[in-house]
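User: Sequence recovery, please. Input:
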């Protein structure tokens, strides 16, 4: 059984007062703060990924050169000193990258048992703003029975916000009002949140890279949005993925482990 909790179809001729309530503005600011922090975290991760491997190769080659020079018939002593300096500087650069990553990386704060229904409903006014901005329609369906999940509420809201924002931006060109649907369901093991867009889908050549840091198909994109959302979901022991949606478009989804229900008198 599903329960319809929200349905917005925004029109260009709506009244002039489109400002969100104060609480929604505060929530939006909090989400933007988390978004900036998440981008910095993933940027540091991307820098580490880009440079640790070549730096490791430099160290290996430099140390190999040192051993070659330390034979009974060594080469010029100055070359040996240069190789030692290469190894030292390369190791120092690697340590510096690690320090930068620690500077920006923030551990997930203590998680609290939370209802995903409340998470989505609290975020709804902000998502309504996205629908209004794109003159689109937003449909939200939440299953009647959902187990609780242990999460950092704001970070998971950031994940949902990012997926919905991407879904509206994926609208098919030439068609007025992109349609986005959010569906929240669950089984005994996890709660699953789906965001389905009405776009043209993801090109086959882009699929293997879609969650890689710095990969983007947007002219002004950073390529860090999906990478940071995946990092947040995985930090919650969850999973994030996507697939073609029935009838066109793409379905992005994430699953979060359900909190095991307490047993009563030795029975579930």
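Assistant: Recovered sequence (268 residues):
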């Amino acid at each position: 059984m599903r329960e319809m909790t929200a349905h917005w179809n925004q029109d260009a001729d709506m009244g002039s007062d489109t400002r969100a309530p104060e609480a929604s503005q505060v929530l939006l600011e909090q989400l933007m703060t988390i978004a900036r922090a998440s981008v910095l975290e993933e940027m540091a991760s991307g820098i580490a990924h880009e440079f640790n491997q070549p730096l490791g190769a430099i160290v290996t080659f430099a140390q190999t050169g040192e051993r070659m020079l330390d034979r009974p018939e060594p080469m010029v002593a100055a070359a040996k000193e240069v190789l030692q300096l290469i190894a030292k500087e390369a190791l120092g650069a690697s340590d510096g990258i690690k320090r930068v990553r620690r500077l920006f990386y923030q551990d997930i704060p203590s998680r609290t048992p939370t209802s995903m229904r409340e998470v989505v409903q609290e975020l709804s006014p902000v998502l309504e703003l996205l629908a209004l901005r794109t003159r689109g329609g937003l449909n939200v369906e939440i299953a009647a029975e959902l187990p609780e999940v242990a999460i950092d509420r704001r970070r998971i809201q950031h994940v949902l916000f990012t997926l919905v924002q991407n879904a509206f931006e994926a609208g098919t060109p030439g068609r007025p009002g992109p349609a986005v649907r959010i569906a929240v369901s669950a089984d005994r093991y996890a709660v699953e949140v789906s965001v389905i867009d009405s776009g043209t889908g993801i090109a086959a050549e882009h699929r293997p890279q879609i969650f890689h840091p710095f990969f983007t198909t947007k002219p002004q994109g950073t390529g860090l949005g999906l990478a940071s959302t995946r990092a947040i979901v995985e930090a919650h022991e969850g999973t994030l993925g996507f697939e073609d949606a029935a009838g066109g478009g793409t379905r992005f989804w994430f699953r979060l482990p359900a909190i095991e229900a307490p047993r009563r008198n030795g029975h579930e």
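The chain is about 45% helix and 20% strand.
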